[in-house]
């Protein structure tokens, strides 16, 4: 007879979720929340091995691509996966799900769940429902701010974190699909945002990036009053939270880039020296057709003032080239604006018509080759300013937040400057998650090299 102690009942192996996320930071944030909500409700753990998973989620983005067709061809690749094991479930979320709704599961019957950016917190119920009824569960509604109330406590993953402060967009730029797929602007109450930031700070987060399609439209309810908190005030509140040393925000609309936000760059030292302010074009005629709500002169005036408030600022933007009717002259005005504003970073795209947007009714007049040429010229100019920006940092001392071991090799670590530049340096693993001072010794194409001075915070 064996005298072995009976082993304790083993907890079942966690169910595995395979998640594909397309697009922007906002989508990555939503994807992380999908994983969190399913971990809390059903004990799901994320895997990068689809064969281990019984749940596949595809979080789509249709801002710049012909994403509809891409979704169906992606789904075609998962047919065999689904049939290989009974009970496997496929869910599609994000912008394409929001646009297609029911039609998506009708055209692709392997899809069991269709949910929008604002209903991802309902995934646990949708999953139970589709498993019980064997029918697709579809919910692409826009229930105001309910999503955030239903999400589990945030889980920090390192010393930096994203916090969504508002959802949707009400600007209706003529080329953009976001207001139709993500709904109107809705701000989270101030206390909810502060609580999430404080919870992250307690887990070792030192840098918060505030997220939203248009964060400077933030108007958060302030508990116990009828007043609303704007972004500048929110930054000041977050700066008072113990542990939070750096704050960034993205994306910001130039028309609502207020004097208060410009003053923040002069007055709030915890606000990082980095601003992403999408201008899209330097031609007033094109800006008017895009319904952007500002002129080139108004934009440049704001840039002049924000540069005076924060001289070491890194300035980033978004550009669209080849908007319908954009002439060589319109494009040259964009190039002039780039030279005047000295953007050292940019996300730039060829225009593509998005279904359901007003601009999609205009003839797409600029030939694909011309768009490609203009994009290449624009990107090469921005690279020049990026190189200059980095060269000017050589010899200066920069405070960096160390994020991870560097891909450059053993004993090297990587962190970011306040101006959002990656710096590689020789250091120690215990510096991860802490601020250190480095002298910048070299500017490389995609990063900087630094020499360690002294550990500062942690
Ligand atoms: N809220 C931001 C702003 O103030 O402009 C923009 C957010 S939008 C989701 C991200 C970027 O995608 C835009 O700035 C624009 O450059 C690009 N984009 C949006 N629609 C596009 C289209 N139809 N074609 C090409 N680029 C597009
Ligand atoms: Fe799109 Fe314009 Fe809003 S680009 S996200 S409609 S500010």
Automatic annotation (TrEMBL):
[4Fe-4S] cluster 1 binds at residues 24, 61, 95. Residues 15-132 form the MTTase N-terminal domain. The keyword Iron-sulfur applies. Belongs to the methylthiotransferase family. MiaB subfamily. Residues 391-454 form the TRAM domain. Catalyzes the methylthiolation of N6-(dimethylallyl)adenosine (i(6)A), leading to the formation of 2-methylthio-N6-(dimethylallyl)adenosine (ms(2)i(6)A) at position 37 in tRNAs that read codons beginning with uridine. This is tRNA-2-methylthio-N(6)-dimethylallyladenosine synthase. It is found in: Cytoplasm. It catalyses: N(6)-dimethylallyladenosine(37) in tRNA + (sulfur carrier)-SH + AH2 + S-adenosyl-L-methionine = 2-thio-N(6)-dimethylallyladenosine(37) in tRNA + (sulfur carrier)-H + 5'-deoxyadenosine + L-methionine + A + H(+); N(6)-dimethylallyladenosine(37) in tRNA + (sulfur carrier)-SH + AH2 + 2 S-adenosyl-L-methionine = 2-methylsulfanyl-N(6)-dimethylallyladenosine(37) in tRNA + (sulfur carrier)-H + 5'-deoxyadenosine + L-methionine + A + S-adenosyl-L-homocysteine + 2 H(+); 2-thio-N(6)-dimethylallyladenosine(37) in tRNA + S-adenosyl-L-methionine = 2-methylsulfanyl-N(6)-dimethylallyladenosine(37) in tRNA + S-adenosyl-L-homocysteine + H(+). It holds the Pfam family Radical_SAM. It is an enzyme of class 2 (transferase). Monomer. One of its GO terms (molecular function) is 4 iron, 4 sulfur cluster binding. GO terms for cellular component: cytosol. Binds 2 [4Fe-4S] clusters. One cluster is coordinated with 3 cysteines and an exchangeable S-adenosyl-L-methionine. InterPro entries: Elp3/MiaA/NifB-like_rSAM (IPR006638), Methylthiotransferase (IPR005839), Methylthiotransferase_CS (IPR020612), Methylthiotransferase_N (IPR013848), Methylthiotransferase_N_sf (IPR038135), MiaB_methiolase (IPR006463), rSAM (IPR007197), rSAM_horseshoe (IPR023404). [4Fe-4S] cluster 2 binds at residues 169, 173, 176. It comes from the Bacteria. Its EC number is 2.8.4.3. Keywords: 4Fe-4S, Cytoplasm, Iron, Iron-sulfur, Metal-binding, S-adenosyl-L-methionine, Transferase, tRNA processing. Its main location: cytoplasm. Residues 155-388 form the Radical SAM core domain. NCBIfam families: miaB-methiolase, MiaB/RimO family radical SAM methylthiotransferase. Its cofactor is [4Fe-4S] cluster.
């Amino acid at each position: 007879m064996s005298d072995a102690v009976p082993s304790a009942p083993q907890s079942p192996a966690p169910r595995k979720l395979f998640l594909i996320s397309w697009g922007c930071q906002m989508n990555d944030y939503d994807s992380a929340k999908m994983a969190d909500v399913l971990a809390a409700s059903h004990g799901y753990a994320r895997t990068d091995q689809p064969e281990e998973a019984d749940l596949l989620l595809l979080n789509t983005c249709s801002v710049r691509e012909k994403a509809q067709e891409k979704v169906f061809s992606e789904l075609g690749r998962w047919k065999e996966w689904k049939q290989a094991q009974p009970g496997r479930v496929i869910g599609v979320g994000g912008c394409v799900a929001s646009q297609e709704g029911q039609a998506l599961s009708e055209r692709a019957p392997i899809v069991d769940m269709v949910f929008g950016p604002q209903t991802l917190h309902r995934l646990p119920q949708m999953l139970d429902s589709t498993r019980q009824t064997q029918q697709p569960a579809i919910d692409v509604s826009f229930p105001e701010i309910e999503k955030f109330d239903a999400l589990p406590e945030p889980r920090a993953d390192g010393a930096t974190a994203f916090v969504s402060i508002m959802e949707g967009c009400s600007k209706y730029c003529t080329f953009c699909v976001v207001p139709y797929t993500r709904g109107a602007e809705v701000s989270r109450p101030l206390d909810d945002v502060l609580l999430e930031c404080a919870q992250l700070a307690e887990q070792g987060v030192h840098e918060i990036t505030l997220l939203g399609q248009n964060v400077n439209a933030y108007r958060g309810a302030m508990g116990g009053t009828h007043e609303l908190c704007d972004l500048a005030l929110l930054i000041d509140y977050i700066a008072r939270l113990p542990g939070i040393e750096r704050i960034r925000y993205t994306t910001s609309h130039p028309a609502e880039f207020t004097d208060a936000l410009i003053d923040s760059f002069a007055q709030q030292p915890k606000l990082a020296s980095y601003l992403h302010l999408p201008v899209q074009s330097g031609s007033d005629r094109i800006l008017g057709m895009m319904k952007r709500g500002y002129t080139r002169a108004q934009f440049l005036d704001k840039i002049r003032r924000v540069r005076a408030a924060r001289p070491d600022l890194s300035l980033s933007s978004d550009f669209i080239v080849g908007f319908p009717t954009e002439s060589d002259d319109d494009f040259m005005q964009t190039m002039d604006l780039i030279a005047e504003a000295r953007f050292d970073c940019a996300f730039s795209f060829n225009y593509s018509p998005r279904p359901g947007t007003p601009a999609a009714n205009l003839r797409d007049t600029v030939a694909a080759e011309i768009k490609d040429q203009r994009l290449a010229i624009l990107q090469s100019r921005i690279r020049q300013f990026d190189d200059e920006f980095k060269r000017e940092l050589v010899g200066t001392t920069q405070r960096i937040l160390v994020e991870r071991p560097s891909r450059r090799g053993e004993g090297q670590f990587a962190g970011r400057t306040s101006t959002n530049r990656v710096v590689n340096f020789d250091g120690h693993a215990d510096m991860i998650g802490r601020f250190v001072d480095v002298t910048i010794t070299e500017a490389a194409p995609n990063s900087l090299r630094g020499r360690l001075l002294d550990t500062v915070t942690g």
